Amino acid sequence: MSRFGIDCGDKSACKNSENGLQKISFIGLKHSMRYNYLKALGVLWALCGCAPVVVHPAPIQKITPPVTSTSAPAYRIGAGDEIEIKFFSTPELDTVVPVRPDGMISMMFAQDVPAAGKTPEELVAVLKKKLAPHVKQPDMAVIMHSFASQKIYVEGEVVKPGPVQLSGRETLLQALGDAGWLSPSAKRDEVVLVRRGEDNKEAVYHIDVSKMVSGEDLSQNVMMQAGDLILVPPSDATSFDRWIDKNIRQALPFSTNAGVVYTNQYQPISR
C-alpha cells in the first residue's frame, strides 16, 4: 500500500499512480501559491495607491462647448499663428507677421501689440487705435495665414504620441484617432485630460474611453481645445505606477504627499 492509499500489488502501476498523484498534488500546490501571490499583489496594489490617479477630478460639466453645439466659437489668435494685415487705402503698409511666444506682434508704427487671445476683429480695433496718430485712414483687415497654435498633445499608450494639429472642431475620440488610436497596452478606463481654463489654471479630468466606444457614455466625448493634453496610461501595474509618477505626480504643480489617488467615481458632463 502506497502513502497515497493505493494497493501496490502491481509495483509499476503503483509507481505510476504515485507519480501521477505527486504531479497532480504539485500542480495544485502551484496553483494555490499562484492564487495567494495574486491575492497578495492585489492587496498591495490597493494599499500602495498606485491605481487610480487623481483624488478630486475636476467636474467635466465645466468643459464647454458641449459636443451637441452647432455654432463654432469665434477663432482666437494664439502664439505661433501667422497673420496678414491688409490696409484698404495704404497697401504699402500691408504686412505678414508671426505671433510671438509672448503673444505680441510688431509692425510699422505699432510695436508690441498684444494679439494672442483676441479674435481678428478685436485685433483690428486695437491696431486702429495704435495707428490712428500715424495713418489717416487705418482701415484694415486681419487675415489668418496659419494656425500653428491649434495643437493638442496626446502622450502615453497611443500609436503615434506627440502633438496633433487641430484641423477644425474635433472631439476627444477624433483626436485619439489622429494619434493612431490606443495601443493594446492602454488602460482605457483611466485616460486623463488636462486642460487650462480661462483663469489660466489647469484642471485634470478622468475619461473612460471604453464607455465612449461601447456607447454607454458619449457625453465624455468633449470638444478639444488648443493646448489640451491627453495622457493614456499603460494597463499593467508596474508600468502604470511608473507612468503615474512620471506624468502625474511630478507634473502637477502641487504636493501629492504619499501618493496621488485616482477616484473611479466619474463626474458626468452636463449638456
Keywords, please?
271 residues, alpha+beta, Outer membrane lipoprotein wza fold like, wza like fold, 3 domains, 5-stranded mixed beta sheet, 3-stranded antiparallel beta sheet, 5 helices, elongated, disordered N terminus
Structural description of this entry:
There is one protein chain. This protein is α+β, with helices and mostly antiparallel strands. It has 3 domains: 1-47; 60-70 and 150-249, Outer membrane lipoprotein wza fold like, CATH 3.10.560; 82-146, wza like domain (wza like fold). 27% of the residues lie in helices and 19% in strands. The chain contains 5 helices and 10 strands. It has helices spanning 11-47, 120-131, 172-178, 209-213, 237-249; strands at 82-87, 95-98, 104-107, 110-114, 140-146, 151-156, 162-165, 191-196, 202-207, 229-232. It has a 5-stranded mixed β-sheet, covered by helices on one side. A 3-stranded antiparallel β-sheet has the order 2-1-5, covered by helices on one side. The chain has a two-stranded antiparallel ribbon with strand order 3-4. A hairpin with a 5-residue loop joins strand 6 (151-156) and strand 7 (162-165). The protein is elongated and about 65 Å long. The chain starts with 10 loop residues before the first helix and ends in a 22-residue tail after the last helix. The model is unreliable at 2-6, 13-53, 65-69 and 254-271 (pLDDT under 50).
